[in-house]
Design a protein that fits this description.
mainly alpha, 15 helices, elongated
Length: 488
């Protein structure tokens, strides 16, 4: 998946700077000539539209007056940009709002950490199929009525053993006894051991301490030929000459594994017991391919993957954002966002499995967008105070951040009512990613940047848009003592 994602990102980047950019040039020329988007015929400017219908359907985007002569060459702001500049920016940076935002943030973080610690790994076979499918119904019935019996676990001897040797017999019996004494397995009444039954058979025949030849001959010619013991034939593998046993297997039955966490713990315990044996033994079950391996590995893989992603984002932000403190804040915002996503996943009854893990990996890219852009706009501004810079960051990038968040939620909303668990989990996770990420970018981050980031930066480049904004903007008074911070 990572390779597919990398290729798609590279392709999208090349596509944007080549074909898409070229198309935008042609579109720009069309707009400059006031040509219709569909018919390409020349139309009147919007201010010269003869009717409302013409204004909506046909009017062009520019007037006959050159742009350089319009309002001293400055383009007008959109309604959303004006909202962020005149209303939301001054509101969110007011000292009362700052206090409320800090309280809300630490409340959000506390709930997220609590949910983070209670998140469970899980995998349910019924989630593979769609709702009301035959597969879903079958596993639903099994989950409800037959979980008292867990999976049958095979213990396989992978080396050639001297089964007639009492030391080997004792070691195998001790391993089976440890498993049968575990709370995760039934006792010997449900275990399957051909060696245990064969030793009883030898004792019934009055054979004690048999030699190798006697042991193998009676096993092949008498024991395995009795109908009640023919079940053990697939469990004993002889060599081509029938002169030794090159491999064999035994079974223990799981008990009362009501949750996937118990199944994981059972799998870990049986592996530990088998590994402690002096013999070359392995344990396996077909169920393990889908569930047990995932349950054991999902948490460390999640921590490792997200840790590498966060470290990579920190290095990239150091290279692209000309302020080390801002790079640290972007990284902390990313960590905070991930904590919230994982924590609120638990509250929304989303378990940690391969599906939610893939969504978390995607969350790295989405989350850093919301924080990195706002932070860079803050650093790029040449405003004299931190509050003015926060307002400028919201003014310049608040609208695209909000639009990106809303468009992403709308895009995934079509799968919200899906009959598949996979799609529903992806939808829920993406809603958490986008909503928490956008909240950090539009609410938490402007406040933290205003409070903690020094405004003087030797690497700062003057931005023309920032200069134009700073000259025109009439910002609210910052005489309040909360904002009378010594600018560094």
């Amino acid at each position: 998946m990572c390779m597919y994602a990398a290729v798609s990102v590279i392709f999208a980047y090349i596509y944007m700077i080549t074909f898409f950019a070229a198309c935008m040039v042609f579109i720009g020329h069309r707009e400059e000539k006031n040509r219709h988007a569909i018919t390409l015929r020349k139309v009147l400017p919007k201010k010269n539209a003869p009717s409302k219908c013409y204004y909506i359907c046909c009017a062009g985007g520019s007037s006959d007056t050159p742009v350089d002569e319009q309002a001293d060459g400055k383009l007008s702001d959109t309604g959303v940009m004006i909202f962020f500049k005149k209303y939301y920016g001054p509101f969110i940076t007011h000292w009362v709002s700052v206090v409320v935002v800090l309280i809300l943030y630490f409340g959000y973080l506390g709930v997220g950490i609590w949910g983070f610690t209670t998140l469970e790994e899980g995998f349910d076979f019924s989630t593979i199929g769609v709702d009301n499918s035959y597969l879903n119904e079958y596993y639903g019935v099994e989950e409800s009525y037959f979980k008292v019996y867990g999976p049958d676990m095979s213990i396989v001897a992978t080396e050639e053993l001297s089964y007639w040797d009492t030391d080997i017999q004792e070691e195998l019996e001790n391993t089976m006894a440890k498993l049968e004494d575990s709370k995760y397995f039934y006792n010997s009444s449900l275990s399957i051991s051909w060696l245990r039954e064969y030793l009883k058979f030898l004792n019934f025949l009055g054979i004690t301490n048999p030699s190798k030849e006697t042991f193998l001959q009676v096993l092949r010619e008498q024991f395995l030929s009795i109908p009640v013991f023919e079940q053990f034939v697939p469990d004993i593998i002889f060599d081509s000459t029938n002169s030794s046993i090159i491999s064999s297997r035994f079974y223990v039955i799981g008990k009362n594994l009501a949750t996937t966490v118990q199944t994981r713990d059972m799998f870990v315990e049986i592996r530990n017991i088998v590994d402690d044996s002096s013999l070359e033994l392995i344990t396996f079950n077909g169920y393990a391919i889908w569930v047990m391996e995932q349950l054991v590995a999902i948490r460390p893989i999640t921590i490792q993957t997200l840790g590498i992603g966060i470290a990579a984002m920190f290095v990239i932000s150091l290279l692209l954002i000309p302020h080390p403190v801002c790079s640290i804040i972007v990284t902390l915002a990313l960590v905070s966002t991930l904590i919230g996503i994982i924590g609120y996943m638990s509250i929304w009854n989303i378990v940690l499995d391969s599906i939610s893990l893939l969504s978390l990996i995607l969350a790295l890219g989405f989350s850093v967008d919301y924080s990195a852009h706002i932070t860079y706009a803050f650093v790029s501004s040449s405003a004299e105070t931190r509050r003015q810079r926060s307002i400028f960051a919201l003014y310049s990038l608040g609208a695209p951040t909000l639009q990106g968040a809303l468009s992403t939620i709308l895009a995934v909303s079509v799968i919200s009512g899906s009959f598949s668990y996979i799609y529903r989990t992806f939808f829920r996770t993406m809603v958490l990613v986008v909503s928490i990420g956008a909240t950090h970018g539009l609410v938490f981050l402007p406040v933290f940047l205003m409070l903690f980031v020094p405004i003087k930066n030797p690497c700062q480049k003057q931005d023309k848009k920032a200069n134009a904004y700073d000259q025109e903007q009439e910002l609210p008074s910052t005489d309040n003592p909360v904002f009378n911070l010594q600018e560094q």
